[in-house]
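User: I would dearly like some help making sense of a protein record. This is the protein in question:
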Amino acid sequence: MEDMATQELEALQYIRYEAHEAVGYITLNRPEKRNALSSELVSELKLAFEYAENDPACKVVVLRAEGPAFCAGADLAYIQELQGFGYTDNLADSTHLMQLFHQIYTLKKVVIAQVQGHALAGGCGLATLCDFAFAVPEAKFGYTEVKIGFLPAIVSVFLLRKIGEARTKQLLLTGDVVSAEKAAAFNLINEVVPAHELAEHVYRFARRLCVENSAQSMEVTKEMIGRIPELPLEESLRYAARLNAEARGSEDCRRGIAAFLSKEKIQWN
């Protein structure tokens, strides 16, 4: 099974995957099309994230891109092709993208977006639903779907959770393209980093998570953050208490507490 997954990964046309020092890199590699989304590229991303999630050599995932743009949204040829779709085909295609977004949001490993250029429409969604996002000052962000009579439907589910109703309305109803600085002010991204420092900054941040944090703890914490907002108060508290109790009995917790009590600095990876 592992050999089959490796063969599929090596056959990818638009995506590269590699892991170094516990950091797995998924690279959008369609620079001549500004890394625009197509059904094939979405399929390849799903495969790459699945591989990264199960790769023992990867503890934290970085999503990055080749070329001047991070991701320009849907491919023009793909948009033209959609004109001939009926509802059933459109629903299947929409579900395909929804599955990718859900996969990234619920991935067991932390996902960091390294945004070296513009991230627009679906590309903006791809960047901003990652757990962390760092971008260059020149990058532009925007959900421009309403300007062409389309809907930023799938990403709205995640944006409402991430930045709240007021900011989501401002971005989705206007379709405005905003600067990286404004995207950071809106909490779409975490930090604006000079272009010549971006790759090293993301690498250092990813490595800090690898070395300083328990992979098991990060996985459960990410799952917990995703689930709690949908639960009623009392149920969310019971859920949190159960996770707390389970964590106390984990090997990572025993190891971490032992190191803390003996005043030793623990390195997780």
In short: The CA atoms of residues 37 and 215 lie 31 Å apart.
